[in-house]
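Hey,
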Amino acid sequence: MTSTSAGIVVVTGGAGFIGSHVVERLIGLGRRVVVIDDFRTGKRANLAPWADRARFGFAGTEPALEVLTVDVAEGIFAALAPVTARFGPVERVIHLAAQVSVVASVENPLVDVHVNYRGTVQVLEYARAAGVRKVAFASSSAVYGDVDELPVREATPCQPLSPYGIDKYASEKMLHYYSAVHGVPTTALRFFNVYGPRQDPSSPYSGVISIFADRGRDGRDLTIFGDGEQTRDFVYVGDVARAVVDAALGDAGDRAVLNVGTSREITINELATTIAGLCGRGSRIVHAPARSGEIVRSVAAVDRAREVLGFTAATSLTDGLRETLRSVGAMA
């Protein structure tokens, strides 16, 4: 099912935090992978472990990797043409490329629309024209906004509070259109708060765990925006990569929208206390004014992902935090 004789899997945003873990899993399954990334936030270092597999340099029996420097929002037809001429058609597309900061989307919604919504349409148009067998799309829990009933279910009405959430929701609607009208099988995965190794703490787009880990390593203050009683469902990147790859390589779940989380919530205050304790370097917890466009509580219902994909997050928050802290040298 997952030999290199199968068609190419394209991963947009494959040099990013989540994307590189997806690439790692695909290569481990013996797939030929084409990464498309413009490297504005992605890093070549994230793909370094597979550099010796680059440019399909093996004789058809080992995993292989091609990396293309391309802005997905400007189209992917031309970039993929020489690859498919040499190695056959694209079979599956995993679309992760995105502007991922809620704060940045509030500050500049035009960029968010261009990168996130236009980028998705470009991918879907390629999939339609090329007869791609499946498109798996990275959506977000940001599509929900603040909800009255938790855990949040996929049928919950979506009322996004930021351009980022709006564009992700609009992209989901476009996936449904391409599936219903053009016959492109699609699955949208609504990620909750993803964390783990390779998340860049210096980026303005970083998650709170990577920032806390970086600061806790040096004993610096851990800054919480707002009162810290806001909650999140933190899901380990290795579990997320497994869900993404299963959705992309399998044929189940056409037009499905699936939450990817753990069904467990923790306050940011509790998270900061836990990380400070694991780091053991005396970091203080301080508070700053709340940021606009951020939701108060978030936790996923995960029944549908279990039913459709057989997916359940396997990594506890404590174990995931330890792996993340070890990866940056922050464990006590």
